[in-house]
Amino acid sequence: MWKPAESLRWQSEALCAKPSNKKYLDWFFSKNFSEKYDAKNLCFSCPVRKDCLQWALEHRQIWGIWGGKDEIEIRRTLSVSYLGEETRRRRYPNCPFCTARPGKLETSVEKLSTTGRWTTAKIVTCSECGFAWRSRTSANAVDAYKAEKIDKAAKLEKKKEKLKKKNKRKKAVL
Ligand code: SF4
Ligand SMILES: [Zn+2]
User: Which label site among 19, 131, 133, 140 has the fewest CB atoms less than 10 Å from its CB?
Assistant: First the structure.
């Protein structure tokens, strides 16, 4: 069930904010593979990983490591380029929390209680782990993935039907 990620209260339990983990701080924005790996490992034992990841996705944090995901994984989840723009290349997201495939993701439109510019939000929910996040670009990509699957299945069915008819005609001639 999706709830707007507005509060930052979860940060009081953040493992990366503990003084004993100070040495990790730069690693969350490092380019070094092994430092990034260690920072991600810290996230995987963090009690607020889910809130952190949801907040980062909702607020489009496309740089650094959040909730165990680096910027490339976060951009892929949001289906955006490194400039934060909706990518033309089809970049289908997996669930960023449990890595379920895009076929396991559902999209919905939720009414917002706020009186801002947007009155509705597009939400993506993972049917495997229940993780949900708000992102128009993710939802668009998931919808495109599903439409493409349906299209491919229909084309395959058409091909099979054609082949069947062809074989029937062949048998009739023989
Ligand atoms: S999940 Fe990682 S980045 Fe997020 S609060 Fe925890 S340790 Fe920090
Ligand atoms: Zn999931």
Answer: 19
